[in-house]
Amino acid sequence: MMLIKSYIHVHLSDPQEEANLTRITELESQLTRANGLVAHLRKSSDEAERKFQTRLHDLQDKLEQASASKRSLESYVNFLKTSYASVFNESGSPASPFSSFLSHP
User: Which of 17, 19, 79, 81 is disulfide-compatible with 11, CB 3.0–4.6 A?
Assistant: First the structure.
């Protein structure tokens, strides 16, 4: 920018040079705005990426918790099946109405 200002003082008398310098100044201004926009878009993109990563991590945690709950419930159901089977088979009671249910995995 400093180079342009000194150039303006030296060549101010030529109208074509003046028009060129005006155009250069306009283009530099556009470049400054474009660079500002790029910086803003990068910041927005980085923020969106950070939010996405946070959300992804949260969902992975929830999936792991749900999987752990499922495993726990499956284990409990298997425990109940085994308990009912041993109670009804050891007591000599007739077959339970749940016997067909208990025999399935």
Answer: 17
The whole-angstrom separation of Cα 24 and Cα 5 is 11
pLDDT tens by residue, 66-97: 999 999 999 999 999 999 999 888 655 555 55
**CB contact at 8 A, 98 and 84:** yes
Give the pTM: 0.55
Cβ within 8 Å of residue 17, ≥6 positions away: 11
Q: Are 88 and 95 in contact (CB under 8 A)?
A: yes
Per DSSP, the residues of 43-72 read HHHHHHHHHHHHHHHHHHHHHHHHHHHHHH
Question: 92 in the Ramachandran plot: left (φ > 0), alpha (ψ -120 to 50) or beta?
Answer: left
